[in-house]
Amino acid sequence: MKMSLSRKLYGLSGGILAIMIAMIVLSVVGLSYSARNTRGLGEDVEQREASMNSMVELGLAVEMYKSYLIHNDQSFVQQFHEHTKKIKDDIEHYQKLGDGQEEKEASTSASEILESYDHMIDNVLKAQAKKADVKTIDNFIGKGAGDQLREALQKLDDIATKNYETKRDKVNGTTTMLRWSMVLSGIVAVLFGIIASTLVIRAILRSIQSVRAAAEMMSKGDLSSEADVLSNDEIGEMAQSFNTMIQNVRRVVQQINSSTATLASSSEELSSTSEELSKGSNELATQAEQVVTAMTEV
Fold first, then answer.
1. Can you point out the beta strands (E) in 70-156?
2. Spatial distance between the Cα atoms of 9 and 6, rounded to a whole number of angstroms
3. Rg of the Cα trace of the chain?
């Protein structure tokens, strides 16, 4: 199959272009994967913020609860419910961002504990209405309620932190792999370009040098040397055409040499004939002289 020089050069350019396209596709795929994980990281960060905000609000709610027990001021009851409402909003936001079963179960459990904790101060009001001691109310109604909710909220934060670290490791791993893949692809593209171009250029130079050597021998009168046909492209066709020219010149020279030899042989024959004619003329002259001498004597 004939492979022209233009096809070789286009093939070389196409190979380098294909490697570059592969690098671009690999980069796009890697960036898309990293983008998805990065969005997941943002959601995990929001979940951590929601869980930490809820723990802060829990601390404030506990403070309002204690303040109400100490001061017996109804304004603290309202503030207590405001803080528990914010905790509820944070848990719901956390649950919306979650996409795993563990997150759903933990947020559902936290919501149930929060609902029980939110009613705790109402139970305190009922107990106070019965003239119960404040310390006794705190021991039997509020004991452990805040700790349970705090543990539930802490579990939410732990889950979000674990998910964040897992996705962060994936993003870092993908980024590292993408970086090395691009570096290796670039090295492969450069090496391919160098090797392929070197082979093509070397083949072209070998064919040209072969034709040049044959032309130099021809210029010195040596028609026995021919160029080596090293490829089947335009350079190879040029070498083949040069060899055909040498063969034609060689044939013409042979014909000239043959004609020269024939001419030399004819010249020798003509010279021999001329000498014979000259000898015949001399003999006729001698005979004529003899006849004249004989006639004179008579």
1. none
2. 5
3. 55
